[in-house]
Amino acid sequence: xxxxxxxxxxxxxxPAQILFESEDVLAFKDxxxxxxxxxxxxxxxxxxxVSDIQGSEHAELLGKLFDAANKIAEEMGIKESGYRVVIxxxxxxxxxxxxxxxxxxxxxxxxWPPG
Length: 115
Ligand code: AMP
Known about the structure:
Blueprint: H1 5-10, E1 18-21, E2 25-29, E3 37-43, H2 55-75, E4 83-86, E5 102-106
Antiparallel strand pairs: 1-2, 2-3, 3-5, 4-5
The structure holds adenosine monophosphate (AMP).
């Protein structure tokens, strides 16, 4: 558990539009959607950022994050059209909330490269 805003969402101290929940993983709609579909997938344990991931320790959990992302993307109808999975890391990476999260964006043609 973390003391970030995502920790509060995990603990149900603040509301979110939850799309999926399991023992280890929570997914909810991004409050400031950048595409018609934009949701976040987070581990319930507080890994602050990508650079804190230990493959030996977190591999199974990372698999569960991607399983949840793909399952929700299919439910939201963007499996065929495609989508983007983004993980911002640290200040230059544009990370605002220091709790690891996958952004899943879709429902429109996304530009590349990102800004
Ligand atoms: P990042 O900049 O990668 O750390 O992304 C943080 C994301 O969390 C942003 O896209 C925010 O819109 C989103 N966010 C912040 N607070 C909330 C909240 N209470 N509920 C849902 N999404 C949020």
